[in-house]
Specification:
With about 150 residues, this protein is mainly α. Helices cover about 75% and strands about 5% of the residues.
Length: about 150
């Protein structure tokens, strides 16, 4: 009986998190999938059209440009964020480092990165100077740099 009571307590403690997860993650995913098969406008009921939305998207050249840019941005940001995070974690997790040294070294590294990012020749300043309408490559690099800056916070 004691084991059964303990299991119910665990389930009850997990229910609020599962409810929030279901409302804000699971429901929007399924709603998006259902809506993608409908011809629906904002605040109006939609009707089922099957795969027509997907066929139209796959035939559109702008979709493929956006898809390619998304893949490039994801790959480039992951290829920079993951090694930097791994190396910082490896550096800060050395066995001879106590909590104080780890905190101080991380604070110094974080402050140095923030000052570099926000300095006069930094990523944020360069983002303002890029002509977004004319330079596709510059726009892609600007978005990647900006996402790296957000990841450093």
């Amino acid at each position: 009986m004691y084991l059964h009571c303990k299991t119910w307590k665990k389930i009850l403690l997990c229910l609020p998190a599962l409810l929030i997860f279901g409302v804000y993650i699971i429901y929007p995913i399924f709603d998006t999938i259902i809506t993608s098969f409908q011809d629906k406008y904002f605040m109006k009921p939609g009707f089922f059209i099957g795969f027509d939305n997907y066929i139209r998207a796959f035939k559109d050249e702008v979709f493929w440009i956006g898809f390619k840019n998304t893949i490039i941005i994801v790959v480039c940001t992951l290829m920079t964020q993951l090694p930097i995070g791994f190396l910082l974690g490896k550096f800060l997790a050395k066995p001879y480092r106590n909590g104080f040294f780890r905190t101080v070294s991380f604070s110094i590294i974080f402050c140095r990165l923030q000052s570099w990012i926000l300095s006069s020749g930094s990523v944020v300043k360069r983002l303002r100077r890029i002509p977004f309408r004319f330079c596709c490559c510059g726009r892609r690099w600007a978005i990647m740099r900006f996402s790296l800056w957000l990841a450093s916070k």
